[in-house]
Amino acid sequence: MLIAKKQRAPASTKTAAGRNYKWLMVKRNKALYLFILPAFLYFFIFAYIPMYGVQIAFKDFIATKGFGGSPWADPLFKHFITFFSSVRFGEIFWNTIRISLYYLLISFPAPIILALMINEVRGTRFKKLVQNITYMPYFISTVVLVGMIDLFFSNSGLVNQLTGLFGLEPVLFLQKEALFDHMYVWSGVWQATGYGSVIYFAALAGVSPELHEAATIDGATRLQRVIHVNIPAIMPTIIIMLIISVGGIMNLSFEKVLLMQKDINIASSEVISTYVYKLGIQKAQYSLSSAVGLFNNLINLALLIMVNRVARKVGETSLW
């Protein structure tokens, strides 16, 4: 009996000690918890509380009855079935996947390459000049960016005028369905690459100069130092950014796609986000648009979990 009592006692003691230790750590680091409190409240209020409205994806929403009073859909997944059986489902889903993968393939490595290149520039003034020039497009609003695309690539725009000097026929950039993806992706790369390189600059700043000195003594060229010193050093940052990018792969810039859409390219430019907007705002089909949006976000969540798990198994870097 005495032995049994001695064996049971440590479990409760350990649990109580664990709680006390956690509470002690919270009290000791209360300044840090206060520091993250605004961010926590922001996401709780604007990201988690609105999730209450997701239930209308499973209801026949009636505005006068609200979220709670609207009847449940029969069957429960009626609006998902409606979307999947729609004649436009295949087209919209393919457009979203195609443009998203194309954008990720081009836009993800571009900031890394830019940061590696500028990091090798020795002239401080020239380096800052290039950084400032590449950052500036990020601060252009989407409306202005699409206006610039229309201005430069219209039939009588700057690009066609320049190519006309060489006797080339004008190209209908904005009217050809096949060119929509390229216009969307490359304009986005131009706008976001400079700003996206900031985090890689920060990672490169943490690379130990001793590693470069050792590589130089061993006879490594500048390119070899980039490949064997800089890239491995920033690899954890690259993996984290890749996981985050894949987790949001289906979230194309809704407003940019919508502004670039024209009747002539609608077949190749209609994506899930613009479809949700048209269903919800223009046609007032709130339940159906919520179901489509929820489907889009579930794909993002599944991809995020999958890529994070792969990254954790392959290396030591992952989000959790």
Structure, explained:
This protein is mainly α and 320 residues long. Helix content is 72%, strand content 0%. It has 17 helices and no strands. It has helices at 2-28, 30-48, 66-69, 78-84, 89-107, 109-119, 124-135, 142-153, 158-164, 180-196, 198-205, 209-217, 222-247, 254-260, 266-269, 272-282, 286-314. α4 crosses α17 (286-314) and α6 packs across α11 (198-205). The radius of gyration is 26 Å and the shape is flat. Mean pLDDT is 88; it is low at 1-7.
State the major sheet: none
Based on CA atoms alone, the radius of gyration comes out at 26 Å
Distance between the termini: 44 Å
Number of strands: 0
Kindly state the percentage of residues in helix. over 70%
Low-confidence stretches: 1-7
Structural class: mainly alpha
Helix-strand sequence: HHHHHHHHHHHHHHHHH
Beta-strand content: under 5%
Principal-axis shape equals: flat
Short description:
72% of the residues lie in helices and 0% in strands.
List strands and helices in order, with pairings.
Elements: H1 2-28, H2 30-48, H3 66-69, H4 78-84, H5 89-107, H6 109-119, H7 124-135, H8 142-153, H9 158-164, H10 180-196, H11 198-205, H12 209-217, H13 222-247, H14 254-260, H15 266-269, H16 272-282, H17 286-314
Kindly list the characteristics that best describe this protein:
17 helices; 320 residues; mainly alpha; flat
